[in-house]
Amino acid sequence: MDLEAAKNGTARRPRSAEGDFELGISSKENRKKTKKVKMIGVLTLFRYSDWQDRLVMLLGTFMAIAHGSGLPLMMIVFGEMTDKFVDTAGNFSFPVNFSLSLLNPGKILEEEMTRYAYYYSGLGAGVLVAAYIQVSFWTLAAGRQIRKIRQKFFHAILRQEIGWFDINDTTELNTRLTDDISKISEGIGDKVGMFFQAVATFFAGFIVGFIRGWKLTLVIMAISPILGLSAAVWAKILSAFSDKELAAYAKAGAVAEEALGAIRTVIAFGGQNKELERYQKHLENAKEIGIKKAISANISMGIAFLLIYASYALAFWYGSTLVISKEYTIGNAMT
């Protein structure tokens, strides 16, 4: 009864005991149509993590925030160092109590730059440690969760009824097991740490900007929505092309595994050329999608960098007007 119902496309959807995976059944024609993907929350991606994974991810998040705050802190040091360059070059007055060594401006500048070199070295060492812990901890947590996902996914496949395998391509399941879970690994791995790092850099940069010079910061904020919109459009385009490319390569992989699994039959009936044509057809489709994806990505990246450099031009122009009016020092404008 279940087999007949499955052939008619009305079979029940078997669920695993844990309810972690649902493997739906659809007919061959419905599989070709665009399926509506059920979206899940961000925290749902980490539902297979235990307390050890959560602790590692929390520590990795703290290190990502410290890593992201390194660049704004470095810009503070850079601004103060720039002011020291300008002051040393233009200050020829001497204090009341001075030694003969102070008569040499080069020695004063060397001592100041040595001090700032120590600052840079300390920031660099801190960022190195924070970046290593950030990447390693998030990668470790992702690897532990992916191992659980692979086990549960494979067990869920083995628990399906025989009718489910009659209407679903079993050769494509292996490709999905490898590629899709690899995508999940990328999504819950060090990229999450990079997200927290970018957020920390964003907020720390604005905090430093408002403290060091709020006027210039407000002018730069005027172009920030345009940068955010371009990044959102870029991400949307790349996500759409990545899904299409993944589906195309999955079909090509299914053809290859099907042919290799029955290689004796293929050779016996002389079907090598036919299988090569089938495989080549799917690869051509994937190649076209990949070319479109690359072109779209490069154009989007070019537009993003155009907007970034345009914001630099605006910042330098308005910063120079503030320096001329003596509202800012050169170091404040550079920060």
Automatic annotation (TrEMBL):
It is a multi-pass membrane protein. Residues 58-335 form the ABC transmembrane type-1 domain. Gene3D superfamilies: ABC transporter type 1, transmembrane domain. One of its GO terms (cellular component) is mitochondrial inner membrane. The chain crosses the membrane at residues 55-78, 117-142, 192-211, 217-235, 297-318. Keywords: ATP-binding, Glycoprotein, Membrane, Nucleotide-binding, Phosphoprotein, Repeat, Translocase, Transmembrane, Transmembrane helix, Transport. This is ABC transmembrane type-1 domain-containing protein.
